[in-house]
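In the design runs reported in the main text, the only information available to the sequence generator was the tokenized backbone. The following block is the verbatim input for one such run; it is reproduced so that readers can re-run the procedure and compare outputs position by position.
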């Protein structure tokens, strides 16, 4: 078990077939933190409104997070666009998990990091939401292919590899969109008198300096399978769980005993 000062995860998308709940359960089993930030799109309300998909492994993730909160971890939930219905509960707590609009995290060395999902500063979300819905439908189809592709890889004893992430990063417009988003988030952090920002939304894990501000994105659990952590010595770093885990993790939808073991450990 590894202990951190803080862990940030986002874009889990529980309620979709693209969610890699088996890897996330394994991550939660092996990692603890003083503060655990859920930075939006934890449950995919968009998908659940269209069709209900909720395997046992997705329920296990929720129960694992609730258990961490009950045992003393400070769990803070910042809703995103796919779980925007939770925004009506700002200031409330559910099972010791606090729901907030945004929050400031202070690192060990005193830096102030503004924590927000990021969708409120995405031009597509704000001015062409219909386009975001269309894009989400296409993205879901790619993730469907990605899941079956990786199921074959796991059976062959190979590690997880994201076909969807590879395709996205080959498209010039997508690369430009990501760069614009990162600069906007850094600018907004400066306006809030913060030293940096932690966000999600675009599914691209990153730590870098932009115009003197620290930009951190914790990635996602459908493509990169990543988290942002602050170590007990104050170091910020991205963890790619498939790189640390080494061996492929069985899919609990097809190997239910693995999900039970991850939950009860």
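Verbatim output:
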């Amino acid at each position: 078990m590894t202990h951190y000062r803080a862990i940030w995860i986002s874009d889990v998308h529980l309620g979709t077939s693209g969610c890699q709940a088996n890897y996330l359960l394994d991550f939660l089993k092996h990692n603890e933190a003083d503060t655990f930030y859920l930075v939006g799109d934890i449950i995919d309300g968009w998908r659940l409104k269209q069709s209900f998909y909720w395997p046992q492994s997705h329920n296990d993730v929720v129960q694992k997070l609730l258990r961490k909160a009950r045992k003393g971890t400070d769990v803070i939930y910042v809703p995103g666009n796919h779980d925007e219905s939770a925004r009506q509960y700002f200031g409330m707590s559910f099972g010791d998990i606090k729901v907030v609009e945004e929050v400031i995290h202070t690192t060990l060395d005193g830096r102030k990091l503004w924590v927000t999902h990021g969708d409120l500063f995405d031009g597509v979300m704000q001015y062409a939401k219909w386009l975001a819905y269309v894009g989400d439908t296409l993205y879901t189809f790619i993730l469907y292919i990605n899941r079956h592709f990786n199921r074959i890889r796991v059976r062959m004893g190979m590690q997880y590899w994201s076909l969807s992430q590879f395709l996205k990063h080959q498209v010039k417009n997508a690369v430009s969109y990501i760069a614009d988003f990162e600069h906007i988030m850094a600018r907004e952090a400066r306006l809030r008198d913060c030293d940096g920002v932690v966000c999600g939304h675009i599914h691209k894990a990153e730590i870098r300096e932009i115009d003197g501000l620290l930009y951190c994105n914790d990635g996602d659990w459908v493509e990169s399978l990543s988290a942002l952590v602050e170590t007990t010595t104050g170091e910020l770093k991205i963890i790619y769980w498939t790189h640390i885990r080494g061996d492929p993790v069985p899919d609990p939808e097809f190997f239910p005993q693995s999900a039970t073991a991850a939950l009860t450990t």
